Model the fold of this input.
Amino acid sequence: MKRILKFVLVACAMMAGCKDDSGGGAGASSASTPGSASAMALKLNGSTTVNLPAAEAAEILRAEKGMNIQMDTHGGSAGGISQLGDGLVQIGMSSKPLSDDDRKKYPKIQFNPIHIGEDAVALIVSKDVWDGGVKTLSKQQAKDIYEGKVTNWKELGGADQRIAFFNKEPGRGTWEVFAHWVYGSPKSAPAVNFPEVGGNEETRNKVASTRGALSQLSSSWADGKTVFALALKADDGQVVEPAPANIATGRYPMSRPLFLLTDGEPARDVKTFVDFLLSARGQALVRKHGYLSLDQLKR
Amino acid sequence: MTPTRVLTPGESLFLAPRRQWDLVRASSYGFTAVTVLALAVALTLLVWQNLPIWGHSGEGYFTGKNWYFRHQAFGMLPMLYGTIAVSVIALLLAGPIGIGAAVFAGEYLPARARMVMKLMIELLAGIPSVVYGLLGILILRNYVYDSLRAMGMDPLSGDSLLTAGLLLAVMVLPTVMTLADDALRGVSPIQRQAARGLGLSQGQSILFVLLPQAGRGLVAAVLLALGRALGEAIAVFLVVGRQDNQWPRFPFAPDSLINAGQTLASKLGGAETNIAYGDPVHWAAVVGLGLILLSVVITVTLLSAWIQRRGEAHV
Done:
């Protein structure tokens, strides 16, 4: 029961896009903390992947500097970009690089992406698939599944079980990284019909509880107990696991930069927040959540 | 001696009979105007932003079975189907159960126990829908998945129109139950006494007197529940699977119900609204989904209110 309650709390924060204060009441009430630096709240929205270290940074800044910070993860990276573009938030969180289309859509905004770390996208499967013997996928195999040419794990050396593929929603950083790897660019990906999943928590939960399940997920969320990250077979036949060493050198093909987005040069509260995530303590938070900090990147 | 005068209904002894523009009156007019204006502005904006899609897709916006925004294909028919399917499943379950519970509470339970039961059911109505959605993910979708497999069917996962319908049934149950209870309370005690006086058993008097007498109120209760079911986004969003373009072989084909689908509200709850912004046609298509959902819910709610009022006029 306790476990369920804990999940409900975590999932509520991650998935539903409800106010993510992480610390519950303590964070929410900081608006009225005496000595609050400014009356206006610093608002962030975007990727659930970036949200993990960012939410923890917000917690620390609330406690130490009395800052009023509101975080949300509505719509993933695309939500972060559009809410920054509409002036609803001062910092967008994104797990994908900005496209020219994004800049064109909001000509008045001077998007300023600040690189805070790196993450890998893994193809994750449920336990029965992993135990059934499927441990790697090649780009061609991923493509065949995505286009519906392969629908059973036995065609890929696994057990006789239909593939239950959960596609990440369009606009999610995770999906775009996948599309880049398989098709070169998100625009070249074919139109397909699959059940869709959104946030990381939802994805992990649905894959874990469905037989024959497959989805794209930030590799730091693949716990190796309920969901398993497949290794990828590169074009030269080499098998590459989404391990930190392979991500750092860029050998693992589906890795992606994590960004904070601001409008122009950061100033005041925005600058405080950005500087904190780039400081040694902030970068330690990035590592803590399974991502690579900037000093770990060897490219 | 001044002649006494009888007050006409609605006339008050304490207020001056002449209407005056005082502060209370003016502000109450003002607030009402704000409410009406808000609805009018919302509707106008939606209609205005929705216009481009009709030039782009025409009637295909309604009748099209494909929605691929990257290919500028916007057909909402499968989403309409999904919306109707989950609502029908929900009402088929919640209707009889809710009315049955109301009959039990009102006719068989002592007054105090009835209040306790009503209170508990109304508490159900206070649970935020996102909590229902999470319970749906944690319990219901796995239960549906395992049960269907045990029955020899082969659903791809526990996300389905059926799961969403079952979850909605629980969510609208308090609405049906409370309003049905009110409708049954509204039947005059004289009717009950007459029924019993004619020698009908309690069961017979419920079936042949009470339920028909409360009929309009019961229909209104179910319609109001329908309004809630149609518009529910987050809970459905989490268990319906959000798979586009799931047009069934025939309406309510069983395989279409045990597989993933999409409703108008779950589509609007998804990430696509963020992408649509900036592209006038795509945005218009998404806004149109909201407009249609709004119109349907308004129609159902008004219909429910109208039926209820006519019912009261008859009693």
In short: The longest strand of chain B covers residues 67-68. The mean pLDDT of chain B is 89. The longest helix of chain B spans residues 23-57.
